Amino acid sequence: QVQLVESGGGLVQPGGSLRLSCAASGSISSINRMGWYRQAPGKERELVATITVTNGGSTNYADSVKGRFTISRDNAKNMVYLQMNSLKPEDTGVYYCNARVSRIGGSLYYNYWGRGTQVTVSS
Fold first, then answer.
1. Residue 68 · residue 16 · CB < 8 Å
2. How, if at all, do strands 79-84 and 18-26 pair?
3. 63-106 pLDDT, tens per residue?
4. What angle do CA 16, 120, 9 make, to 5 degrees?
5. How far is 27 from 38, CA to CA, in rounded Å?
6. Which of 20, 55, 73, 122 could form a disulfide with 82 if both were Cys (CB 3.0 to 4.6 A apart)?
């Protein structure tokens, strides 16, 4: 089994900051990418940011968060972080951690998801 557990969500005023964390654990052989997605009420889940675990940590951001959010990782701890600054009401949603994991004894990579953490940006 592979588990992803997010933390760090909450209520913040517009212009404020939050830092999300995600820890991956279980029968993990290798992780090649981690990332964050979000889902606002009534909308589909969308990509926020991803980071590769190898290849020097290449990052990818949704246009809506570029310059405000920063994704980072700690490979030794199997953790990924999302620093969110200058938050806007439209950033409100459930934020999900994602990881592409190869399990012990296997060779293929599969997507795993956390249960999500709520981020609410409101005055």
1. no
2. antiparallel
3. 999 999 999 999 999 999 999 999 999 999 999 999 999 998 88
4. 80
5. 26
6. 20
**Could you tell me which residues are beta bridge partners of residue 60?**
50
Instruction: Please give the structure tokens belonging to residue 24.
Output: 């991956």
Hey, what are 110's tokens? 């599969």
Q: What are the residues facing 34 on neighbouring strands?
A: 51, 99
36/48 Cα distance (integer angstroms)? 5
Closest CA to 53 of 98, 9, 94, 108: 98
Say whether 89 sits in a helix, a strand or coil. helix
At 75, phi and psi to the nearest 5?
Answer: -65, -35
